[in-house]
Amino acid sequence: MKRLVLLLCFPLTAMAAPANTAKLAHSLDTIIAARFKPASPGVAALIVRDGHPILRKAYGLANVELNVPLQPEHVFRIGSTTKLFTATAVMLLVDEGKLDLGAPVTRYLDAAPRHWEKVTIEHLLTHTSGIPNLSMDSGYWRTTARLDHTLEELISPVHARPFDFEPGTKFAYNNTGFNLLGMVIEKVSGTDYFAFVEQRIVKPLGLKHTRESNDKQLIPGLVTGYREGPTPAWPLANSNLHAAGGLVSTVDDLAAFMLSLQSGKIVSPASVKRMNTSHVLPNGAATGYGLGTWVRKVNGKHLVGHGGYIFNFYSQLEMDVDSGIVAVTLHNGDKFGGDNEELSRQLISAVQGSIVGI
Hints:
signal; Beta-lactam-related; alpha+beta; Beta-lactamase; Beta-lactamase-related domain-containing protein; Beta-lactam/transpept-like
């Protein structure tokens, strides 16, 4: 029954999965189980090929204090994987002619400082804006990030600062830039960022558990995060994450979102292609990052997606677009199972290697 429900969530197919995937599922299960102890924080994992789930399973505990086992349907904070939703929202507005990737951010934000005329929407999406990243300030995560802030308060501290580098000339990962994109989305659409994501992405795709990670509301199924020990995750006000990292989701929702995005069901195929293409700097160097998505190769195949970390959750959403493989891993602990990107690549590699035999 769970498999049938999962297939109905996926927009690409409702056909029966190949019958001889049990051996592959066992191999994937062995890879993950070797990393996570049953009595520690763990991971929910979903691996899909051609729209069919191969493995959907959880390992470890959702709550250590209460000894509650993790379930695949549990909800996790996804941190910077939110950026893929933000980039998708931007490209929706680009497709509708409401946003121009080459336009300066000052065209859309009246309060932006004059020197930001050099910064385009594309610069923000590709982390090449040169605008200082507030979350890199000394002490930010120990002090500022624990207090509630409005979106304007997340941006205004960098208004008077000079660029870290000339816009467009370097790559530097930047949460402030994506919060600026959230502000642009609100200005252009006339809708709150989270409401826009819900109305234009979440509801149309039938995603059941993707929403704002609001500290002031109960979120059914949300697991507890842990750092080393395990000890409780550091306190953090989710309002500081916003369009850069403020969503919660599940493995099912994230796989369905990725499949819909890559099939051109949310934004145009041309926009998807542009999102999936590594940005190239003026010196000819590829950054390995497109428009809101990391771009990499595994076994010669083209992988796209995004990962996230926020106290103390890790998320990884990747798709081998050449082979139709999606891997989603959501962790509620601080690397209790090792590096999440490495795990994702290991799982995708295992499925890639099985394709000929299946």
